[in-house]
Amino acid sequence: MNMDFASDFTMTINGRAAWATETLAVVNPATEAVIAHVPDIASVQLDEAVTAARQAFGDWKDVGIAKRQALLRALGDRLADHADEFALLLTREQGKPLADAAMEIGTGIYWLQEMAGQALEPDILSDAPERRVELRHVPIGVVAAIAPWNFPVGLAIWKIAPSLLAGNVMLLKPSPFTPLTSLKLGELAREILPPGVLNVVSGSDRLGPWITEHPGIDKIAFTGSTATGKAVMRSAAGNLKRVTLELGGNDPAIVLPDADVEAVIPRLFWAAFANAGQICIASKRIYVHESLYDRFATAMVDYAKSVKIGDGTEQGVQIGPIQNRPQFDRVRALLADARSAGTRFLLGGDVPEGQGYFIPIAIADNPDEKSRVVAEEAFGPVLPLLKFSNVDEVVARANDSPYGLAASVWGTNLDAAQAVADRIEAGTVWINTVQDLGPGQPFGGHKQSGLGVENGREGLLEYCNPQVIVRCAAPT
Ligand code: NDP
């Protein structure tokens, strides 16, 4: 298949290319240049996509899991054939450095292959000859995946792989800021999957609500902000759609007095600043024991000064721009607010004028716990370092948040670190590591960080309805 990665971006509806009368411009955040135009779907075309999916559902759910596993692996193989083109396109639309884009594509391929290895055996709850009770896991129907702009390919695949494996059919809606790689993924899928099984649609801000309100859609899998997640849930109530919501976080990292500062610094630096801080599980508040604080802060600033920021296509660049103008403005406003509140910055804090949505690394020096720079999710390269003096105090501060996505604890005495981790309110708590995820590992948020999980058997079951079959040998 010869794919044009430079200019030809079409939706995939019912296994065919689909254009629209209106288009949307896509901007490279490093240059602010328009790099492509994509279809802005009309509501009648969304209806066509939902109808096509519904028509494909019967055959797809009955084809058997072995066939679906094989086709998902084939999709992974085709993505691997085009990995370099996808990585370059991802950098151009998203801004992340080319090495990170290649890693996102590689991880997506790995996820497709690994998820395709999962089985969906029924659970036998009772196996007496006269009364057998079986719990089956049957597909839900038409699933819509609403993906964000920070990991457009990776987070789309987190939804596509389990949903299709379970026997559902899908619509994928990428963010209007990063639709290009998703549209190309749809193009690849046209050659592999039966028509209607995976439809990829692009559109402006009206498309999200059209999807969440659509009576022909049975489930929404959403990654994005907590505020939008709540809107999705409200709107999904119309026909009682199932929802999986992966939302915001304000992950604390706790550095205990016996932590190995030199070893921890690079891990926590990248946990905070990779992808320009635009990661739901970025470390967004680092609590450092007072006995280490000055040494830790100096080492973190030194490390930050060695990192190169720029256009992700340039050799050696490690951090790219903020992905889009509204997010750039939000992060700039947060920094301006911190400045006017008197926050001290050990590094950065100002945003120079220039081309591209670039924000220099900003490290705040022990700001007030209630300040916006601590209490809010920056979703940008802004990190508060905070001092603590005892474990009870730091646990209370870490848990004092509406979010509960993930957290990390760092220390040499594992039992002491574990004792702290046990008290943290979050969906994942890492000890001496961070952002450690896997296709077999359920991932989801507590509190307002989400609903349900992705990945692992629990994540796969989110794409199934439970169905109990009670079989009796004779009328009872
Ligand atoms: P949103 O959460 O608003 O949007 C995410 C996706 O949802 C987009 O595709 C968006 O499309 C869509 N959407 C928006 N409104 C609705 C709706 N009512 N119904 C259905 N879909 C909808 O993210 P933003 O881009 O506005 O970013 C804002 C904040 O979200 C960031 O500052 C960050 O804190 C957080 N965020 C978190 C992510 C995560 O990984 N958890 C990822 C991205 C952002 P459209 O743009 O067309 O409205």
UniProtKB/TrEMBL annotation:
Domain of life (superkingdom): Bacteria
Gene3D superfamilies (alphabetical): Aldehyde Dehydrogenase, Chain A, domain 1, Aldehyde Dehydrogenase, Chain A, domain 2
Domain Aldehyde dehydrogenase per the UniProt entry, residue ranges: 21-468
This enzyme's EC code(s): 1.2.1.3
Presence of the UniProt keyword Transcription regulation in the record: no
Active site: E246
Uppermost EC category: oxidoreductase
Protein name: Aldehyde dehydrogenase
Iron is among the record's keywords: no
GO molecular function: aldehyde dehydrogenase (NAD+) activity
Keywords: Oxidoreductase
UniProt family annotation: Belongs to the aldehyde dehydrogenase family.
